[in-house]
Design brief:
single chain; 74% helix; 0% strand
């Protein structure tokens, strides 16, 4: 991910510019330049470059898929879905389009459809660890704990990866198996120390193991420091600002966190993951009414009780009678068919 490494961004831009100077009609050059613009938060120019690439090769599945990813970041869910479905209509075995379609549904909160899309991606690419990891993650969110564990282990057996390890940690933590969860969280951080959400999971696991409060705070602080660096590369990353707010509050630095939430909201942090993080932030900041209102919106969109139960900092909120009323009013949905 170039957004995590400014030096890689500089190198990528130089390579893209050189490629296009040699061949202005090089599709890969325009896609590479689009990735540079997208990585610095310039979605307008990123989409312009994608448009030029598609004008040269209108049916290129990778180009269409990447354009869909940019639309997702802009919360243009319908436009992204159209791109992914267009790819799959012409290339029904293109696993990446299924995977990104699953991400699209996941960010909107349509978890049953997301799970079905991820399963299709895994069938199309049975040895792909990412597709399996995404299946495991969605299984957890839908309360299918046994399937989540089995699929995560299968993913790790295919290729050790931090997403599968983090999902294992989350499932075990939800089952109150805290020492086991901690070991998986440590493995996730080892596999990908540059991913802030791995440190968040590590901190959440430490917070549930007696005598590790300082370790938990340290993990959150590391995540905050990492996110701060990434925001320097792409200051338009709304979900990143929301995560930074959570990391700061969890590491004992609540000052300015609410302003970061507002900034995130202004920068299209409309994905359901960001909104669930917002619930945690507001509750930790003592803004109970706003936390409940946000929770109600999240549950209307498709969030599940399993996700809320796994949040380590909502014990007080969950004891509020209004919390129970919200949860009872919005039961989890059932699996539905994909529009493919």
């Amino acid at each position: 991910d170039m957004r995590r490494d400014p030096s890689s961004m500089i190198l990528a831009k130089a390579n893209a510019e050189t490629s296009l100077s040699l061949d202005p009609d090089l599709v890969e050059g325009h896609v590479a330049m689009a990735s540079v613009f997208e990585g610095t938060g310039d979605e307008t120019n990123a989409l312009h470059e994608m448009g030029r690439a598609l004008a040269l090769d209108p049916s290129n599945p990778k180009t269409l898929t990447y354009q869909g990813q940019i639309f997702d970041r802009l919360n243009r869910w319908d436009d992204a879905e159209k791109d992914f479905l267009r790819v799959l209509k012409e290339r029904p075995n293109f696993w990446l389009a299924y995977n990104e379609l699953g991400m699209n549904y996941n960010w909107q909160g349509d978890y049953p459809k997301a799970l079905q899309a991820f399963r299709a991606a895994s069938l199309a690419a049975p040895k792909n660890s990412l597709a399996l990891s995404n299946v495991a993650s969605l299984c957890f969110q839908l309360g299918k704990f046994d399937e989540a564990i089995g699929t995560a282990k299968k993913s790790m057996g295919t290729e050790p990866n931090d997403l599968a390890a983090a999902t294992m940690a989350e499932v075990l933590r939800a089952q109150k198996k805290y020492p086991e969860a901690l070991q998986w969280a440590l493995q996730a951080v080892t596999l990908n120390p540059a991913e802030g959400t791995n440190l968040l999971e590590l901190g959440d696991c430490y917070s549930k193991v007696h005598g590790h409060a300082a370790d938990a705070e340290s993990a959150y602080a590391q995540a905050a420091q990492m996110e701060e660096q990434q925001m320097q590369t792409d200051p338009t990353n709304g979900p990143g600002w929301m995560l930074l707010a959570l990391y700061r509050v969890k590491s004992g630095r609540p000052e300015g966190a609410y302003a970061l939430v507002q900034k995130a909201e202004s920068l299209k942090a409309g994905d359901l993951d960001s909104q669930l993080f917002k619930v945690r932030i507001l509750e930790l900041l003592g803004r109970r009414e706003e936390a409940l209102a946000t929770l109600n919106t999240c549950m209307k969109r498709g969030a599940t009780s399993y996700q809320m139960d796994a949040s380590v900092d909502l014990d007080s909120l969950q004891s509020d009678p209004r919390y129970g009323e919200i949860m009872n009013a919005h039961p989890s949905g059932n699996v539905v068919s994909l529009p493919i």
